[in-house]
Amino acid sequence: MRLLRPSGAGPAGGDEDDDAALLRAVARGDSEALGVLYDRHAGWLHARLARRCPDEETVREVLQDTFVTVWRSAGTHRGRGEAGGWLWVIAARRLVDAQRVRARADRAAAPAEPPAPAPSAEERVLAGLEYGEVGAALDRISPELAEVLRATVVDGLTTRETARLLGIPEGTVKTRALRARRELRAALGAGGPYPLGGTA
């Protein structure tokens, strides 16, 4: 399995049917299909990871881990939603894991250091969105709607960026965002306002 260095900052061409076919081929052990998938998606994944993590070595490791995970679990992608969103979920989770491992290693290497600063308000909100009650509710709504909310709210992308990432029209992003908010409120079992941001 030979992976190339990423280039470019946005999702490459090719439609979802192509990506789904590539993932099915990868699930059958086709390393060339993995290479094509990597060439198509590694550039924008690298760019998004680099926005979340300033350490280039960590970003490269996470990108590699992401495609190793794709190699091992391509068969779990059932075509429920866009491959780009599925890849980003894997990459974001690998990044969180890598940052936790690095933080533990840093603490073990320097136990006498003063405690790390408390997480910022933004970090606490994002952690709550990913892992708290809202995160659990996100897992209960339709995957294609959850992908739009994660892109626009958790990742802070605009409608245009989200449309480009997920390979859908901007109008579809707006429609899915509205439906996602309604489903999320229902999943949370309350009708009150939630800080779910905008998609402009």
UniProtKB/TrEMBL annotation:
Coiled coil: none annotated. Keywords: Sigma factor, Transcription, Transcription regulation. GO terms for molecular function: DNA binding; sigma factor activity. One of its GO terms (biological process) is DNA-templated transcription initiation. Residues 133-184 form the RNA polymerase sigma factor 70 region 4 type domain. InterPro entries: RNA_pol_sigma-70-like, RNA_pol_sigma-70_dom, RNA_pol_sigma70_r2, RNA_pol_sigma70_r4_t2, RNA_pol_sigma_r2, RNA_pol_sigma_r3/r4-like, WH-like_DNA-bd_sf. The keyword Cell inner membrane does not apply. Residues 37-104 form the RNA polymerase sigma-70 region domain. Belongs to the sigma-70 factor family. ECF subfamily. This is RNA polymerase sigma24 factor.
